[in-house]
Automatic annotation (TrEMBL):
<comment type="similarity">
    <text>Belongs to the PP2C family.</text>
</comment>
<keyword id="KW-0904">Protein phosphatase</keyword>
<keyword id="KW-0378">Hydrolase</keyword>
<dbReference type="GO" id="GO:0004722">
    <property type="term" value="F:protein serine/threonine phosphatase activity"/>
</dbReference>
<protein>
    <recommendedName>
        <fullName>Protein phosphatase</fullName>
        <ecNumber>3.1.3.16</ecNumber>
    </recommendedName>
</protein>
<keyword id="KW-0479">Metal-binding</keyword>
<dbReference type="InterPro" id="IPR039123">
    <property type="entry name" value="PPTC7"/>
</dbReference>
<keyword id="KW-0464">Manganese</keyword>
<dbReference type="GO" id="GO:0009507">
    <property type="term" value="C:chloroplast"/>
</dbReference>
<dbReference type="GO" id="GO:0046872">
    <property type="term" value="F:metal ion binding"/>
</dbReference>
<keyword id="KW-0460">Magnesium</keyword>
<dbReference type="InterPro" id="IPR036457">
    <property type="entry name" value="PPM-type-like_dom_sf"/>
</dbReference>
Amino acid sequence: MVGESSILVAKDSVRKEHAIGVADGVGGWADSGVNVGFYSRELMSHSVDAIQEEPKGSIDPARVLEKAHSITKAMGSSTACIIALTDQLNGYVLCQEYATGDFAQI
């Protein structure tokens, strides 16, 4: 974590699933006295919780970010990206980018 940004690394060796993510708080909130670092850290913290609640073999980055966003109470906003790495993907990576809603399967 640095300033307005936050990262997550979620690893489950038993389920053979992993996720990484980053949230970059929107600095324009500083003009209103808001520390968006709190927002991005809370968003990533809730994302870790949401990942742990995902069904085995199906971490859905979009669902994770939606759930995390819905319970984040800190003021601010952020771009965010979560990448899911699971054994079930046969070498594919699922990535959801929060700010634009873009989705990619790599």
